């Protein structure tokens, strides 16, 4: 069953894995060393990220290195962009209200 990208990034460990491999491709064993969990547990997280196309494997001899799939994350960011304008406008309006209140108290 293919996972949903929101399910994938909802988990803090999976977000941490994405952060790690955004800097450098890593093997599952190398990832497991960064967390207080077994390699098998890390592999389950990798499976979800792979099913969501957020990471890409690259075979090198007997090792598999996982790379961050920036293109997929860009698609996600493009989807979020449609909402970003809305919340930025609302935050700017809130900043103006708070600034006005602050000036009135002086």
From TrEMBL:
Q: Signal peptide: which range, if any? A: none
Single annotated GO MF: DNA-binding transcription factor activity
Q: Which Pfam families match?
A: HTH_20
What InterPro entries does the record tag this protein with? ArsR-like_HTH, HTH_ArsR_DNA-bd_dom, WH-like_DNA-bd_sf, WH_DNA-bd_sf
Residues covered by the HTH arsR-type domain = 1-88
- Which PANTHER family does this one have? SLL0088 PROTEIN, TRANSCRIPTIONAL REGULATORY PROTEIN
Q: What name appears for this protein in its UniProt entry?
A: Winged helix-turn-helix transcriptional regulator
Annotated source species: Mucilaginibacter rubeus
């Amino acid at each position: 069953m293919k996972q949903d990208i929101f399910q994938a990034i909802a988990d803090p460990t999976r977000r941490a894995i994405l952060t790690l491999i955004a800097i450098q491709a890593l093997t599952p064993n190398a990832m497991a060393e960064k967390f207080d969990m077994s390699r098998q547990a890390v592999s389950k997280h990798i499976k979800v990220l792979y099913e969501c196309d957020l990471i890409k494997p690259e075979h090198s001899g007997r090792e598999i290195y996982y790379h961050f799939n920036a293109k997929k994350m860009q698609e996600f960011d493009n989807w979020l962009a449609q909402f970003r304008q809305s919340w930025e406008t609302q935050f700017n309006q809130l900043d103006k209200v708070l600034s006005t209140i602050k000036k009135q108290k002086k």
